[in-house]
Design a protein that fits this description.
single chain; Rossmann fold; 6-stranded parallel sheet
Length: about 400
C-alpha cells in the first residue's frame, strides 16, 4: 500500500495546488469499532490513510446496525483483544439504523464539524433511508461540503428486484463515488454517467499478520499433519459457494492423497447442511470445520498453515479474504464473477476459474499446488500489491 509522509504530502500539495490545503477535514459515516467485520476494518484503514495525509478525520458511527431479529450471526460486536489502528477518540456512535431522530442528530453533529467532505459507507439497501436522509440534509444546508459514497458493491449479492430503486435514490445524493473495483465503478457509471468516480482497491489486510507463527508451528498449533492444506475463510453464506468446494474435495483427495480442507468462519444459515454433506461424502477425517467468527489475534495460524486459499464464489464484487490471503503471501483460487478477478494475476498470484464446478475447482487447486516451488507466488503477490493501495483515493480527495 502506498504511503506518504507528512513532509512528502505537504510538498505534493505545494507543487500541485499552491500553498494551502484545498481540503482539511473529512467525516466518515460508517460502522466502526466496537462492531466487527470487513466494513469496520475498512473504516480503520480509511482512518489510517486520511490521517497519514495530514487531514482531520472523524467517524460518525452507529449505536444500532441490525435489529437482532435481522442479524443471522451470534454477535455484531468485536470481542478481539487486538484492534487494528485503534482510534476511539475519533469515533462517535450516534446513528440508529431504525430511529430517524438519530439521523437528524447525526446531521447536526456533522454540521458542527464543518467538514470539507463527508464519506458515506455503502454496503446494503437496509441502510438507504438513513443515508438518504442525512445526505439530503447535508446537501441542502451545507453547500460547501461535498458528499462521496464509498462502496464495495453497488447492488447486494441477494440482488432483490426492488433494490436498485433504493440504491439509485441513495447515490443520487452524492457528488461523487469511490468504488473498490472496476466492476462496481462500471455499474455506477451506467446509472450516473456524469458523476466523478474514483476506482481504488480494498486495503491489503496486513494487520492480522502478527509474525507469531511459521508454517510448521502453525500446523502444530492447529493439529494438522497433512502435507498440503487448502483454506476457505470468512462468513459462510450461500453465495460464497462453500458447498461446491466440499463436493469437489473428494476429487481433490483422489489426486492429492495427503491434503486437508480447512473451513473457518461463522455460518449465516444452517451449518448442518455442510456437516451433513461432509459426512455423506465420507471426508470427515480430512476436513476441519471451525464454525465461529475468528478474533483478530487468532486469524494468523489459519493462513500461515495453508498452501492456498479457495474462494469458489457464486457472485462477488471484490473480496477482503483475497486481501488477507495476499497479506500472508498466499495464492488464491477464485471464480470468474464480478470484480474479484481484477484482484488476481493469472498463474502468478493465483488462478481464476470460469465457474465453481467440481472439475474447475479441482483444476484451480491442482494448478496452484503443482506449481509451488516453480512459481514464486510470494514474490508475485508482493509485486502485484505494490500496484494496489490508495494513491488514487488520496488524489481524489485532494481534488
Amino acid at each position: 500500500m502506498l504511503e506518504c509522509t507528512d513532509s512528502c504530502f505537504v510538498n505534493t500539495i505545494n507543487v500541485k495546488y499552491g500553498r494551502f490545503y484545498l481540503m482539511k477535514k473529512v467525516v466518515n459515516v460508517a460502522p466502526a469499532y466496537p462492531y466487527r467485520g470487513g466494513i469496520v476494518l475498512e473504516e480503520a484503514y480509511l482512518y489510517k490513510i486520511i490521517t497519514s495525509m495530514g487531514m482531520d478525520y472523524k467517524t460518525i458511527s452507529y449505536t444500532l446496525l441490525y435489529p437482532k431479529i435481522f442479524f443471522p450471526g451470534k454477535t455484531q460486536y468485536d470481542t478481539s483483544k487486538v484492534i487494528p489502528f485503534e482510534h476511539n477518540d475519533k469515533i462517535e456512535r450516534i446513528i440508529s439504523s431504525i430511529n430517524p431522530f438519530t439521523w437528524w442528530k447525526a446531521y447536526k453533529r456533522i454540521k458542527q464539524e464543518k467538514p470539507d467532505v463527508v464519506i458515506f459507507r455503502w454496503w446494503m439497501f437496509f441502510f438507504a433511508p438513513c443515508i438518504i436522509t442525512i445526505a439530503f440534509l447535508i446537501r441542502k444546508n451545507m453547500k460547501k461540503t461535498k458528499i462521496a459514497i464509498l462502496a464495495d458493491n453497488y447492488i447486494s449479492h441477494e440482488n432483490h428486484w426492488w433494490e436498485k430503486y433504493l440504491v439509485k435514490a441513495t447515490f443520487r445524493q452524492a457528488h461523487s463515488f469511490i468504488a473498490a473495483s472496476d466492476f462496481t465503478a462500471k455499474q455506477m457509471r451506467n446509472d450516473f454517467p456524469n458523476k466523478d468516480i474514483c476506482t481504488t482497491t480494498l486495503s491489503i489486510y496486513d494487520c492480522y499478520n502478527l509474525n507469531r507463527y511459521n508454517k510448521t508451528s502453525a500446523k502444530e498449533f492447529l493439529s494438522i499433519n497433512s502435507k498440503e492444506v487448502i483454506l476457505f475463510f470468512g462468513l459462510i453464506r450461500p453465495y460464497k459457494g462453500l458447498m461446491k468446494l466440499i463436493e469437489a474435495f473428494p476429487l481433490i483427495k483422489q489426486e492429492r492423497k495427503d491434503i486437508k480442507l480447512l473451513i473457518v468462519g461463522e455460518c449465516y444459515g444452517d451449518i448442518n447442511e455442510y456437516t451433513s454433506k461432509i459426512k455423506e461424502l465420507n471426508i470427515e477425517e480430512d476436513v476441519m470445520l471451525i464454525n465461529e467468527f475468528v478474533a483478530n489475534e487468532d486469524i494468523e495460524p489459519y493462513f500461515v498453515a495453508s498452501d492456498a486459499v479457495v474462494l469458489p464464489y457464486e457472485s462477488a464484487t471484490q473480496s477482503g479474504i483475497v486481501m488477507t490471503a495476499y497479506a500472508f503471501r498466499k495464492p488464491v483460487v477464485v471464480t470468474n464473477v464480478g470484480g474479484i478477478k481484477e484482484q488476481v494475476l493469472q498463474e502468478k498470484t493465483g488462478f481464476v476459474i470460469e465457474d465453481n464446478s467440481k472439475e474447475n475447482i479441482l483444476s484451480g487447486v491442482n494448478a496452484i499446488l503443482d506449481n509451488i516451488g516453480k512459481i514464486d507466488y510470494a514474490k508475485n503477490i508482493e509485486d502485484f500489491i505494490d500496484t494496489f493501495g490508495n494513491q488514487k483515493l488520496k488524489d481524489f480527495l485532494l481534488k
